[in-house]
Amino acid sequence: MDQHKEKSLANGSRNLADEDLTQAVLASFGDSKSERFRQVVQSLVGHLHAFVKDVELTEEEWFRSIDFLTRTGHITDNKPPELILPSDVLGVSMLVIEINNKKPPEATASTVFGPFFVENSPRFANGDDLANGASGEPCFIQGRVLSITGKPIPDARIDVWQADDQGFYDVQYKELSQSRSRGHLYSDAEGRYYFWSVRPEAYPIPGDGPVGELLDTANRSHMRPAHVHFMIKAPGYKTLITHVFKEGDQYLGSDAVFGVKSSLITSFERHEPGIALDGKQMDVPYYTMNYDFILVPAEERDSVQ
Ligand code: BEZ
Ligand code: FE
Fold it and tell me: Ligand 1 in contact with 230 (CB < 6 A)?
């Protein structure tokens, strides 16, 4: 290290520019209480400084970035909250999911959690109608919860949530206090689950805040292809957070949050009025969707739910 550099670093955080500044900031985290914290923050600082230098960020651009984050953070009364959306539209959410959910190809892929999950959704029994008045054509959804060796997993808790045929989740209807097309149920002794809901429709992610502006500036679509969200928990298995997407949806190739995986796409088959698979007399056309979820064993460090 040259004399000048040694002197400026020894001086702490005074009179620093460019590389010395980066080195001083990195060094300031050298004594962090947690090794993992040190590693993460030093890497973040290194990449942030390199990014600022790479694009030679102007002061105006920097102010606009801070304003973007401030406005995003201030939207706290929105349902869903805006703060998760930058991570989603920048692909960071999917990247974190990919890194943390490596599994054999036969296991069901994970995808984004999204902002529309609600804790303590109502409990249903297999065969029930979760729609509870949601707008849309009836859809019978069924499948099994299995291990990667094909063993049925009974008593798995299956949380379900989805948009209606207008592309809205129940929580987006301000006047609505009940759940619609949202609930949880348990797989039966053969690992089977089955319930009624409505066929979901594609929808735009919330676009009235800074993230909507970002997508517009980038000439990007706000749309997510139609899907049903599932979260499946079973003792001894890693919790699965995923969606099942509707085959043929026009937005499968341009999901605003990069969440689509081919293995998660399936057909929603249309049926004329008649007796449905569960024996229910249907006086209107209806759809069926069939999807098996394959869970991987919990890792040592995962707690059993
Ligand atoms: C969703 O699928 O519910 C969702 C995911 C990411 C951003 C917005 C919505
Ligand atoms: Fe969704």
Answer: no
Q: Tell me: the pLDDT tens digits for 100-123?
A: 999 999 999 999 999 999 999 999
CA 224 to ligand 1 center in whole angstroms: 7
Rounded CA separation 76/209 (Å): 11
The residues pairing with 266 across neighbouring beta strands, listed in sequence order, are: 246
Q: DSSP alpha helices (H): ranges in 29-140?
A: 35-55, 59-74, 85-89, 92-100
Q: Using the predicted structure, report yes or no on whether residue 9 has a pLDDT greater than 90.
A: no
**Is 138's C-beta closer than 6 angstroms to any atom of ligand 1?**
no
CA of 211 to the centre of ligand 1 (A): 13
pLDDT digits (tens, 9 = 90+) for 248-279: 999 999 999 999 999 999 999 999 999 999 99
CA 205–ligand 1 middle distance (angstroms): 6
**Position 10 pLDDT exceeds 60:** no
Confidence band for 304, pLDDT divided at 50, 70 and 90: very low
Cα four-point dihedral sign 262, 263, 265, 266: positive
CA 299 to centroid of ligand 2, rounded, Å: 27
SS3 232: strand
| pLDDT per residue as tens digits for the range 24-68 | 999 999 999 999 999 999 999 999 999 999 999 999 999 999 999
277: nearest Cα among 136, 124, 133, 141? 141
Beta-sheet strands, E only, within the chain: 138-147, 157-162, 182-186, 192-198, 203-204, 223-224, 227-233, 240-246, 265-266, 269-271, 274-275, 281-282, 286-290, 293-295
Q: In angstroms, rounded to a whole number, what is the distance separating the alpha carbons of residues 151 and 57?
A: 55
Ligand 1 atom with the smallest distance to the CA of 257 is 6
